[in-house]
Amino acid sequence: MIKAEFSKKKDGIHLTIKGHAGYSKGDEDDIVCAAVSGIFYALCGYLSNLKKEGYFLNCAEAGYADVECGREGEEAMKLACIGIWQIALTYPRHVSVNNTVWDW
Fold first, then answer.
1. 67, 40 in Cβ contact below 8 A?
2. In angstroms, rounded to a whole number, what is the distance separating the alpha carbons of residues 19 and 2?
3. What averages of pLDDT result for each successive group of 10 residues across the chain (104 residues)?
4. Which of these, 49, 68, 75, 82, lies nearest to 8 by C-alpha position?
5. What's the DSSP call for residue 51?
6. Distance CA 45, CA 79 (A)
7. Integer angstrom CA distances of residue 27 from 22, 24, 51
8. Reading across the β-sheet that carries 95-99, which strands appear in turn?
């Protein structure tokens, strides 16, 4: 299962994604992992283009990704949270989201 966690940091937002979806069988590419990864990499690309202080891509490897940003990236983080949440609603046995930042 993929577990995405959005949390507040001192001056911004932190996202950690752990695990594998386990949706595909055998050697097939996993569409659920690909969907979550696509959102994560789009988020990182957007944040890096802000050219502001406070963007840190701490890790991006198979099974673990970690990024944080300052307040100027909060709307992008919110969009990523909504996107991953939509995937979790469709594939609840494969993705979960823990959001302690926004009250929805």
1. yes
2. 5
3. 94 93 83 96 90 79 92 93 98 97 88
4. 68
5. -
6. 13
7. 11, 8, 39
8. 56-61, 64-70, 12-18, 2-9, 95-99
State how far the Cα of 5 lies from the Cα of 52, in Å rounded to an integer: 23
CB 62 within 8 A of CB 53: no
What type of residue is 27?
D
Q: What pLDDT sits at residue 28?
A: 73
pTM of the predicted structure, to 2 decimals: 0.91
How many other C-beta atoms are found inside a 10 Å radius of the C-beta of residue 40? Answer: 21
- Residue 52 confidence (pLDDT): 67
